[in-house]
């Protein structure tokens, strides 16, 4: 009886070891796969919450940041594909680092555009401040991006950034076999429209974002401009942001 008991204990220990190794491999896979796009705190939430990948949705106030490289279509036609994607991936690496540092989460890459949300999946009362500071840091980093481009004999690039704060529906969209964390709603469309009004090197934010971002945001002295975005019922006032604290563009 003792011998049988000892053998069973050994079997259970081996099974436990196999299970532990399997869980470690799973965690490593998740970190490698999503670690490039999500902040550490969100990754920990996904790993520790058994409901982290549940299909569903919720309404929440967030700040949406959308960036876009100017004249990227022309660049892609002039450059060979390998060089163009190498240049693009280097740009993405630099931008992802900054977005993660300011607690933003990248939801999608649409061509050369970056769609990021601040305040989800984890709530953040300072989402407007963080997104605006992030945008300033992103534009400031473009100098280093273009220095690298020139060193590789690539052309200089520029981007515009639009930011808006408002309610959106967020959650995992898809099925149990393939899902994506995403957001939808009028305010997501408005953020995209705001980005469309930006010029190269510019950051435009809505009234809602400026009012919630705090006193450290530096606005262009020329003041706000009124625009009529396509698909939006009312005119929208946009603010040209030129700095955050002592960090100026």
- CATH level 3 topology of the largest domain: Alpha-Beta Plaits
Structural class by sheet pairing and helices: alpha+beta
String of helices and strands: HHEHHEEHEEHEHEEEE
Unreliable spans = none
Q: Count of DSSP helices?
A: 7
Number of discrete domains:
2
Alpha-carbon distance between the termini?
Answer: 78 Å
Number of strands: 10
Mean pLDDT: 88
| Percent in strands | 25-35%
What would CATH call the homologous superfamily of the largest domain? Nucleotide cyclase, GGDEF domain
Instruction: Give the CA-based shape.
Output: globular
**Percent range for helical residues?**
40-55%
Question: Nearest-angstrom radius of gyration?
Answer: 22 Å
What do these coordinates show?
Helix content is 45%, strand content 28%. With 249 residues, the protein is of the alpha+beta class. The chain folds into two domains: 1-34; 40-248, Alpha-Beta Plaits. Strands 1, 2, 3, 4, 5, 6, 7, 8, 9 and 10 form a ten-stranded mixed sheet that branches.
List the helices and strands and how they pair.
Elements: H1 2-34, H2 40-48, E1 56-69, H3 72-78, H4 81-101, E2 104-110, E3 113-118, H5 127-151, E4 159-174, E5 179-184, H6 186-196, E6 203-206, H7 207-213, E7 217-219, E8 225-227, E9 236-244, E10 247-248
Parallel strand pairs: 4-6
Antiparallel strand pairs: 1-3, 1-4, 2-3, 4-5, 6-9, 7-9, 8-9, 9-10
Helix pairs in contact: 4-5, 5-7
């Amino acid at each position: 009886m003792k011998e049988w008991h000892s053998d069973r204990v050994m079997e259970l220990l081996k099974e436990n070891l196999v299970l532990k190794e399997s869980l470690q491999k799973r965690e490593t896979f998740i970190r490698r796969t999503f670690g490039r796009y999500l902040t550490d705190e969100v990754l920990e939430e996904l790993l520790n919450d058994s409901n982290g990948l549940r299909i569903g949705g919720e309404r929440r106030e967030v700040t949406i940041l959308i960036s876009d490289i100017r004249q990227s279509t022309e660049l892609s036609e002039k450059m060979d594909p390998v060089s163009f994607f190498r240049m693009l991936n280097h740009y993405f690496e630099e931008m992802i680092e900054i977005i993660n540092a300011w607690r933003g989460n990248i939801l999608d890459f649409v061509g050369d555009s970056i769609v990021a949300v601040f305040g989800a999946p984890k709530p953040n009362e300072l989402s407007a401040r963080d997104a605006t500071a992030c945008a300033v840091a992103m534009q400031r980093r473009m100098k280093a991006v273009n220095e690298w481009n020139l060193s590789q004999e690539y052309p200089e690039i520029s981007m515009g950034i639009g930011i808006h704060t408002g309610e959106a529906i967020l959650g995992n969209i898809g099925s149990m076999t393939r899902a994506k964390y995403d957001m939808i709603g009028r305010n997501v469309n408005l953020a995209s429209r705001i980005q469309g009004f930006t010029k190269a090197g510019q950051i435009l934010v809505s009234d809602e974002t400026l009012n919630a971002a705090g006193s450290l945001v530096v606005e262009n002295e020329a003041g706000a401009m009124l625009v009529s975005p396509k698909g939006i019922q009312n005119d929208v006032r946009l603010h040209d942001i030129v700095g955050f604290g002592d960090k100026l563009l």
